[in-house]
Amino acid sequence: MSKPNITLNVRQTRPDTSVIDIQGEINAFAENTLMDAYTLATNNGARYIVLNFEKLDYMNSSGIGLLVTLLIRTQRQKQRLLAFGLNDHYRQIFELTRLNEAITIFPSEEEALAVAI
Amino acid sequence: MSDIEHPGENTHSGIWAQPVDTLDAGDAPEGLTAINIQGRRAIGALQGFGQLWKKTYKVRLTGVKHSTMEVMQVWKENFALFQPPGNRFYLPSDGVTPGKIMWIDSPLPVAPPFYDKPGIVPMTSGVVILYADDESFSVMTPEGFPVSGWNNFSVFEEEDGSLVAQVQSFERASDPIYEFGFRFMGGAARQEFIWTNVLTRLAEYLGVKSQVTMERECLDPSIQWAYTGRVLQNAGVRTTLHKAAAPIRWVLRLFRGR
Question: Chain A residues with CB inside 8 Å of B44's CB?
């Protein structure tokens, strides 16, 4: 039986910025967990939400739908969604699905946070 | 800091298509034109014109004595067979393979009451197989296709042990013509009929009579006017014009043959 296999850590780095550290798998079963993390970040007052993919184990195509849902929610809240820590394989997937045109990808957390100032 | 944790089992590994700048139609099925695939870019739900909809269709396969992987194998092998009349799918010769094109010849409807009948506006295009694993696969649409986005087909097990087959789409109408068609000419109803029919036929094939449930959510009601120009790539218009010009092409071939 498939269950969520994901751990999310929400870090508030500045009053208007939260980093969501992703560990595990992004698939359909991660939806509630991811949206809970987003809600927590938003309740903390985040205008910038930065996804940390450094410890991402796996993402299937259902994960793309989750990221789109998350992206739309941030856009409707006038927030900005950023990302860092993608390896080459997942960078390619972001290019393939054209998510990279809406979610800016950075090489490191420092560079992502620098934009969020 | 806050942790939100759900440790669980590892899922199966899958294969993603390789990124390409433009699509290669390859060999077209007999009688179909490649004009709406060859050289087109694959586009997602973020690059479409109309409202963004998430639609989830599910059918419970209660009593089916197969694994999720076995059901998905049946689905992949019979994907074209389960389509309703008038909605013709052509799988790649090597099956559901990421990066390959799944051809679609599916006339578009022109009136809401006839959504369950084959349409009359010719439309030939295809989708690129984006991802596949043992329990799911996904497709992504090219420029000019009626919708811009992704469809995900999956089989999973619920907590009570029942299997569920699911189709989930994230998509926008690609251009203003399609958005009008979806809202006022039966396009949305036709689409929902197609996937409901597919899941019903999958269940029947496995010996189950079960009701398909459908949930729809408008994730973004806004129109992306920047993509109005996509009408120039509209596969329905281009297929219709291509068919209408067939006599002219025939005459030109005669002259070239001399």
Answer: 64, 68, 97-99
